[in-house]
Amino acid sequence: MAQAALGAAGLHFDELNKLRVLDPAVAQQTAQLREECGAFLDRIAEFQKVVGGLIELVDQLAKAAESEKMKAIGARNLLKSIAKQREAQEQQLRALIAEKKMQLERYRIEYETLCKIEADQNEFIDQFIFQK
């Protein structure tokens, strides 16, 4: 009866017969909730550590991918510049070939002209010798 009167007043006895303001069942639930919250916080801290490691790994991979991307862009630009250089060199060589062909044609015409002159001079010499 005394416990009922104390219970009505909001006072309770615990397992050690100490006077408590909180109901022992509620106190036990509170302690259990506190333990569950502690375990939950531990799991959250572990999760944050795992996520932090994952984020760090993803950042490293992103940096590596960016580095490889820049290398690929550099290689592509180098390849384009080499192709342009080859085109320019090809054009220069074509121009040089055309110039050499023109020079060859001039030399051929000059040679033919000189051959005609030689033939004329030989003919003149032959006529001069026969006249004496």
From TrEMBL:
Assigned keywords, A-Z: Cell projection, Coiled coil
GO cellular component: centrosome; ciliary basal body; ciliary base; cytoplasm; intraciliary transport particle; neuron projection; non-motile cilium
Primary residence: other
Keyword Coiled coil appears in the UniProt entry: yes
Keyword Ligase recorded: no
GO terms for biological process, alphabetical: cilium assembly; protein localization to cilium
Coiled-coil region(s): 79-110
Compartments (UniProt record): Cell projection, Cilium
Name by which UniProt lists this protein: IFT20 protein
Organism per entry: Zapornia atra (Henderson crake)
